[in-house]
Amino acid sequence: MTLSLTSALKPSPALSVPYLQRRRLFFILMTLPAVIYVLVIGVWPLAQGIWFSLYEYNLLKPARTHFVGLGNYIDLLSDPVTRGAFVNTVIFTVGAVTVELLLGFAIALALWRDDRFNRICLALILIPVTITPLVVGLIFRALLLSDYGVVGYYLAEFGLSDPRGLFANPSSALATLIFVDIWEWTPLVALILLAGLKALPGDILEASEVDGATALQRLRIIVIPLMLPSILLALTLRTIDAFRIFDSVYVTTGGGPGNATNTLMLHAVKQGLEFFNIGRASAISNLTLICIAVIAAGFILLIRKADRKANGR
């Protein structure tokens, strides 16, 4: 009786096939808008950028457009301005991310204990993250101007900065931009690392404390090895974001003085929107994308390796 009832309730193959087809069609229609959005916003501009980078294409001279293959990329490798922009980008990325990681880890350790005071401090230090980089650049530009900036005026008055301001001095402009980035994004790194700290197994830490391990020993032997996936995640996100820096540089220095703060993304925008050299601008953007892809792939491999090591696999 039970078997006959089960077989009676089970849909026949003839009825289940149309249902599966309608179900598959429903899911395809649900994902279609997202697929179209990615194709229009992401894939199509990327394909156009790759196509334009293979041509000598200037909007001011459209009649002279011709195929050059990898000529734009070869020219960029021999261009001192592009090489300088690449060096500035690397210095900015390494300097900002290194300090952000160290400060963020220190802040995460200070806020590790879950109490009301630490929760209030965490909410307050996250305020810079909620401000867009463009606005942050405008704020620091206004603060550090030597003539009427609240901070810049006194720095110049006491001889602590160039009379023209920190952003106007080639030796201090890039370091000032690194400081601005550190101020804005260190709280995000601290939040990621704090989440990793709170996910650590408490029994291992308690056992090490009972065995007489000092706080420094627990940090070196237990906390940092188990925190490697979170540390590498923070490094990945911040390195990729710092490498494509544009907003704050554009509104504070515009790449100057001279080319002291010129970065790859700013250099690409200048080539495309100031000199209308679309072919070269596309080549610079593609080179930046390749660098970011290599950085991301390297960090992903390190994250997977650290995760396997942390889980004992």
Condensed summary:
With 313 residues, this protein is an all-alpha fold.
Describe, in plain words, how this protein is organized in 3D:
The structure is a single chain. This protein is mostly helical. 73% of the residues lie in helices and 1% in strands. It is built from 13 helices and two strands. The protein has helices spanning 2-9, 13-53, 71-77, 80-110, 116-125, 133-144, 152-157, 173-198, 202-210, 215-243, 247-252, 264-274, 278-310, and strands at 55-56, 66-67. The chain has a two-stranded antiparallel ribbon with strand order 1-2. The longest helix has 41 residues, at 13-53. The radius of gyration is 27 Å and the shape is globular. The chain starts with a helix and ends with a helix.
Features:
13 helices, globular, about 325 residues, mainly alpha, two-stranded antiparallel sheet
How would the blueprint of this fold be written?
Blueprint (H helix, E strand, L loop, with lengths): L1 H8 L3 H41 L1 E2 L9 E2 L3 H7 L2 H31 L5 H10 L7 H12 L7 H6 L15 H26 L3 H9 L4 H29 L3 H6 L11 H11 L3 H33 L3
Antiparallel strand pairs: 1-2
Residues in helix, %: over 70%
* Mean residue pLDDT: 87
Rg, Å, rounded: 27 Å
Largest sheet: 2 strands, antiparallel
SSE ordering? HHEEHHHHHHHHHHH
- The number of strands is 2
Q: Which range does the strand content fall in?
A: under 5%
Number of helical regions: 13
The best one-word shape is: globular
- Cα-to-Cα separation, first versus last residue: 50 Å
Structural class: mainly alpha
Spatial strand order of the main sheet: 1-2
Show unreliable segments: none
